Amino acid sequence: FQMADPFLYNTGERSGYGCLGHELQVEHIKAYVCRPSYFTDKAVIVVHDIFGWMFPDIRYIVDLIAGHGYITICPDFFKGKDPWKPTDHWHDFADWMKKHDPMKVDRTFHSSCKNDNLTNSLFLNYIIGIIRDSEERYNLLNPTFFIFGEKDHTISYDQITLLDEKLKQHCKVPYKIKVYPGQVHGFAQLKPEDMKPVDKPYIEEARKDMIDWIKTFI
C-alpha cells in the first residue's frame, strides 16, 4: 500500500533516555526487560514497532508498565535484523519490508489473540492489516483493547467501524475499541518531554486506559 511520508509518525529528535531495565539473551533472541521494585509473578510482553526493541520510545513504555507492578519484556522480534531507523529514507521502505515480512507480525498478533496461555491483549494503534477474510479471526480468546489515533492513516475510521462490527458478531470475551481525537500513528509512545502540549492530554489518557485495562485482567 502507499504510505504518507513519513508515516505520519514524526520520530523527529528524541530526548535522551536512561533506561531503567537491562538487556538479556534468551536462547537465540535478545530482549529488554524491566522489573518492578518488588516481587511479582505477573508479566507483560511488549511487541515493538518497526523501530525495533532498542528504540527509546518503546523502552520507555516497557519501563512505564514495569513501574505499575509487572515484569515487562520486549524481545527483539526482528531477531537481529536491522530495524527501520528514523534517519532512513522512506522511499527505501518497500525494500526494507521485503526483509521484514509483515505476515510474521500479523501471525504474532493472531497468536496473541488466540493463545489460551496468554491472559490479555493490548494493541496500541499499530493495527495494520488485521481486517482479514476469515471470520474466525474475530473470535478472540483473550480480552483485547484496541487503541487508535483518529488521524492514523494506516487504518481508516471505516476499518475501525468494521472491526467493531465483526467483533460484536464473533467475539465472546471482553474487548474495547477507543479512538483518541487528533492523534496520529504512534502517538501513545512519546516520552513526556517529547510530547506536544496539544497531544499530552490524549497521550496521558491512553496511558491510563492502558494500565487500567492491564490491571483489570492481569
TrEMBL record:
<feature type="domain" description="Dienelactone hydrolase">
    <location>
        <begin position="29"/>
        <end position="109"/>
    </location>
</feature>
<dbReference type="InterPro" id="IPR002925">
    <property type="entry name" value="Dienelactn_hydro"/>
</dbReference>
<dbReference type="InterPro" id="IPR029058">
    <property type="entry name" value="AB_hydrolase_fold"/>
</dbReference>
<comment type="similarity">
    <text>Belongs to the dienelactone hydrolase family.</text>
</comment>
<dbReference type="GO" id="GO:0005829">
    <property type="term" value="C:cytosol"/>
</dbReference>
<feature type="domain" description="Dienelactone hydrolase">
    <location>
        <begin position="134"/>
        <end position="217"/>
    </location>
</feature>
<dbReference type="InterPro" id="IPR042946">
    <property type="entry name" value="CMBL"/>
</dbReference>
<dbReference type="GO" id="GO:0016787">
    <property type="term" value="F:hydrolase activity"/>
</dbReference>
<protein>
    <recommendedName>
        <fullName>Carboxymethylenebutenolidase homolog</fullName>
    </recommendedName>
</protein>
<dbReference type="Pfam" id="PF01738">
    <property type="entry name" value="DLH"/>
</dbReference>
